[in-house]
Design a protein that fits this description.
Elements (H helix, E strand, L loop, with lengths): L1 E12 L2 E2 L4 E5 L5 E6 L8 E7 L2 E7 L4 H8 L5 E13 L4 E15 L15 E14 L2 E7 L4 E4 L2 E2 L2 H7 L2
Antiparallel strand pairs: 1-2, 1-7, 3-6, 4-5, 6-9, 7-8, 8-9, 9-10, 10-11, 11-12
Length: 171
């Protein structure tokens, strides 16, 4: 039996580690937009791929450093985020067989500047929300999925699934 477990992560904002400043990160889901199709002679209707829905990420901070807060307050400049984690693989009763890196690259715009809620004798947490335009997921150095909505790039396992469409559109 092969068991995999992923615990913990570290976040980088514009290539700088913010280790210890965040308590949770929610990476975006890639969701296909599907268009209904029906015609005469069909006993039902079908759905076909017609692009992607918008992506959003959130980070809950224990309270970020001032330079990170300044970055989050600038809604006009994109932010590069990287989430790094480790996937442990257990093999039978022998314990951890190996650990491999999980890396998620995100690029997008900050959507709100968190002010925070302050309570006596409680940690203050603030939350940032990002509109994501670029997403890439790698496991052990292997590209799993990459989506760049502005450049019409969609790759799965390194295969460029939009290359022909870009060529047909002349872009």
């Amino acid at each position: 039996m092969k068991i995999t477990k992923v615990y913990d992560a570290n976040i980088y904002v514009n290539d700088g580690s913010v280790h210890g400043q965040a308590s949770e990160v929610t990476c975006p889901d890639i969701a296909a937009v599907m268009t209904d199709y029906k015609s005469l002679g069909m006993v039902g209707s079908a759905e076909f791929f017609n692009g992607f829905d918008k992506m959003e990420a959130t980070i809950k901070w224990t309270y970020p450093a001032s330079d990170v807060l300044k970055t989050l307050a600038n809604f006009l400049k994109p932010v590069d985020l990287m989430v790094r984690s480790s996937k442990a693989e257990y093999d039978g009763g022998e314990g951890i067989k190996e650990e491999v890196p999980i890396v998620i690259y995100l690029r997008g715009y900050s959507k709100k500047h968190p002010g925070g809620t302050f309570k006596p004798k409680e940690d203050t947490e603030v939350e940032s929300t990002f509109s994501i335009l670029y997403f890439k997921q790698e496991i052990d150095g292997e590209a799993i999925v990459e989506l760049d909505v502005l450049n019409n790039i969609y790759k799965v396992g390194g295969e460029d699934l939009m290359a022909e469409r870009r060529q047909n559109l002349g872009i």
